[in-house]
Amino acid sequence: MEIGYSDSRLNRDKRKILVIEDEIINRMILENILRETYDVVFAETGAQGLEILNEQFRTLSLVLLDLNLPDMYGVDILRQIKADAVTAVLPFIVMTADQEAEVQCLNLGATDFIAKPYPKPEVVLARILRTIELFEGRDLLRWTERDQLTGLYNPEFFFRYAAQFDDRHPDIPTDALLLDVNRFHILNERYGKAFGDEALRHIADKLRKTLNDAGGIVGRRGADAFLAYCPHRSDYADLLRQINDGIEKDYHARVRMGVYPNADRGIDMERRFARAKQAADKVKSSFSGAVGVYDAALYDKESFNEQLLEDFAAAIREEQFTVYFQPKFDIRSEKPRLCSAEALVRWNHPRLGIVSPGIFIPLFEENGLIREMDSYIWEKTARQIRSWREQFGWTIPVSVNVSRIDLSDPLLPKLLEKVVDKAGIPQAAFLLEITESAYTDDAEQIVGMAKALRESGFRIEMDDFGTGYSSLNMITTLPIDTLKLDMQFVRTAFRDKKDMRLIEAVVSLAHSLGLATVAEGVETEEQLQALKALGCDIVQGYYFSKPLPPEEFEAFVRLHKDTEV
């Protein structure tokens, strides 16, 4: 192998060209033409050329390729290089006396053609310069429009090219697809980022080969999400199976897919893929990987949610949200005694009627409105506690929900202090419920915030304990005052009698840590007596009362005032 110009000081600022040419006289001619302008690397055979390409492709600006080599035909080299997504971007100029090979080479991806014997040096240099400048302009665009890990379009250019597809093919029905990897963060944590990157490239290659060949456009959004826009088809289950078969064994991952078929071109491109994401979220809990399809039911849900989001500001302004209160009873003494309550929000929509909090609270969490909602509830609740103290001469502690979004605010302790100070109530009367699942999202950050809240005088309750995230280590390390057993957890325990031992163990562990226990969802005398026997401290549920609006709760308090703690 011959390599030109070894003085790196002379060549470090020059563009590098690889010349694959077996004839020594041709190499000498090209060296004389190119040496003043370019850093030239020579290969005498196809094998040598491929070796240099694989080692130095990132630094090469151009390849000059002779078609007649002693070990292989240049067309085969060209075909091999263009089949690799990484090296395919390199420009090739083919050199040969065979004029009939020109069309074949151009069809295989050659950028230009130089006939032998070589034309004047200035013609050769002009063709080379033009090819390199075109390549560099294209490469700059590629770096701008492409995701560098997978080579797929980034979202901005993906949506642009998808819109151009609509313009060029107005009569072709199209589908919007979104794919993401189930629990991809765990893949990275267990096996490392490089392993996760390999899995993403594998998925990208599969999508590119399958959908690009069918006239589709593929992009990457975020860490583990892929977008595809393609002519309508019905074999997505097969496509997803192929992808999962390819990565499950080697990368221990599964992919799910959301499809918005026959996408409505009357809505913008981003909304089409939002619908595909809704469909993907519908099968989020699928272990095996599944295809979710956007349909009429999802459309109705989307329309309903949009209506709720649009009406949120008016609902706050017009006080359509009402805080209900469910009583809690201390069952440690012979007779249950009213000891506190839980604040629960209800939305009395002027057109839609009563809207379930199970619908609007997750929606507001997803769209960032939950902070304003929670602040509204906190202030209403704090004023109500103050009002009842003035009426009954007794401060009724009330627990309020603190969402995981609230917990990300470093100013939360100050904000809550301001709420209770404004209402003139003590921090101990304002109990803070943090859901168990919030701790699993970012345990370190949540623990730090819980400590800060307790230092400010607030008491912390872990809500929804037993919903599936629990671990003994969690409740032994978290800074909480009360452990609240989830309603479904309690009901399941009573349905399957053997699970009563689990409640007994949790209550015993909580007491050993100095924590009080609250059981939700108590509906019968049998449940009440069993929980009391197991050592549970406080209960709430329909056995005593459903959640009540303020005026009905006041009547309830008057009725049970003699049982107050």
In total, how many beta strands? 19
Distance between the termini: 93 Å
Strand content: 15-25%
CATH class categorisation of the largest domain: Alpha Beta
Name given to the CATH architecture of the largest domain: Alpha-Beta Barrel
**Please, how many domains?**
3
Across the major sheet, the strand order is 11-12-14-15-16-17-18-19
State the shape: elongated
Summary of the model, kept short:
With 565 residues, the chain is an alpha/beta fold.
Care to describe what's here?
The protein is of the alpha/beta class and 565 residues long. The chain has three domains: 8-145, Response regulator (Rossmann fold, 3-Layer(aba) Sandwich), CATH 3.40.50; 155-294, Alpha-Beta Plaits, CATH 3.30.70.270; 321-559, Alpha-Beta Barrel (TIM Barrel). It contains 22 helices and 19 strands. The strands form three sheets. An eight-stranded mixed β-barrel has the order 11-12-14-15-16-17-18-19, surrounded by five helices. Helix 9 runs antiparallel to helix 10 (236-251) and helix 14 (370-392) packs parallel to helix 15. The longest helix is centred in the first third of the chain and has 25 residues, at 121-145. It is elongated, with a radius of gyration of 34 Å. The chain starts with 7 loop residues before the first helix and ends in a 6-residue tail after the last helix. The model is unreliable at 1-12 (pLDDT under 50).
